């Protein structure tokens, strides 16, 4: 594995290849990828994502899980913040968990992805512990969402497991491929 800049450059090259978007073959793997990185490099990754989103040769949508969460609860933000202050994370989870288990959340993700060829999933660290990237990918698969999704993950991917910030093992095991 090279430097983060080399890996980002490799990602840019890889997603421009014709076969990346047009996966064919019997039993083609789910097109879910991960680019893991040290959380201290978050601003560098964000800048590179902005750069890639501005490239006319790419038809990419960014789905930021944090923004999606805020949008889902936009009418209740003040109440939820107060609840979080009073009852902590557990109380907040009891209030928002049932909604996150419905298809509204996943349908919001799919709507944000729109007609893009590739989806960048970002904001993973900001929604911890309420939304888990692996669970989101599983639910997308269950709904036959076949667009390539690249998970930008501030942590470590071991080949089987995701460790948020390199320390938390809170994700389920999920079939992902390292993109670079």
What's this model, at a glance?
By secondary structure, the chain is of the alpha/beta class. The chain has helices at 4-15, 18-21, 42-53, 65-72, 77-100, 103-113, 133-142; strands at 32-37, 60-64, 118-122, 149-157, 162-164, 177-178.
What does this structure look like?
- Strands 1, 2, 3, 4, 5 and 6 form a six-stranded mixed β-sheet that branches.
- This protein has one domain (4-14, 28-178): Rossmann fold (3-Layer(aba) Sandwich).
- It has seven helices and six strands.
- Helix 4 packs across helix 6 (103-113).
- It has helices spanning 4-15, 18-21, 42-53, 65-72, 77-100, 103-113, 133-142; strands at 32-37, 60-64, 118-122, 149-157, 162-164, 177-178.
- It is of the alpha/beta class.
- 45% of the residues lie in helices and 17% in strands.
- The longest helix is centred in the middle third of the chain and has 24 residues, at 77-100.
What's the structural blueprint in terms of helices and strands?
Layout: H1 4-15, H2 18-21, E1 32-37, H3 42-53, E2 60-64, H4 65-72, H5 77-100, H6 103-113, E3 118-122, H7 133-142, E4 149-157, E5 162-164, E6 177-178
Parallel strand pairs: 1-4, 1-6, 2-3, 3-4
Antiparallel strand pairs: 4-5
Helix pairs in contact: 4-6
Which short descriptors sum up this protein?
alpha/beta; 180 residues; 6 strands; 7 helices; Rossmann fold; six-stranded mixed beta sheet; 45% helix
């Amino acid at each position: 594995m090279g430097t983060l800049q080399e890996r980002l450059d490799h990602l840019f090259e890889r997603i421009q290849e014709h076969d990346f978007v047009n996966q064919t073959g019997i039993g083609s793997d789910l097109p879910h990828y991960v680019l893991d990185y040290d959380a201290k490099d978050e601003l560098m990754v964000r800048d590179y994502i902005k750069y890639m989103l501005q490239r006319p040769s790419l038809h990419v949508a960014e789905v930021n899980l944090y923004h999606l969460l805020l949008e889902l609860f936009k009418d209740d933000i003040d109440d939820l913040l107060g609840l979080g202050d009073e009852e902590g994370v557990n109380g907040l989870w009891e209030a928002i968990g049932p909604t996150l288990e419905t298809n509204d959340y996943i349908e919001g993700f799919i709507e944000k992805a729109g007609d893009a060829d590739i989806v960048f999933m970002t904001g993973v660290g900001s929604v911890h512990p309420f939304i888990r990237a692996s669970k989101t990918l599983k639910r997308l698969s269950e709904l036959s969402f076949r667009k390539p999704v690249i998970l930008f993950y501030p942590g470590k991917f071991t080949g089987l497991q995701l460790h948020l910030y390199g320390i938390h093992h809170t994700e389920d095991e999920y079939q992902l491929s390292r993109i670079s």
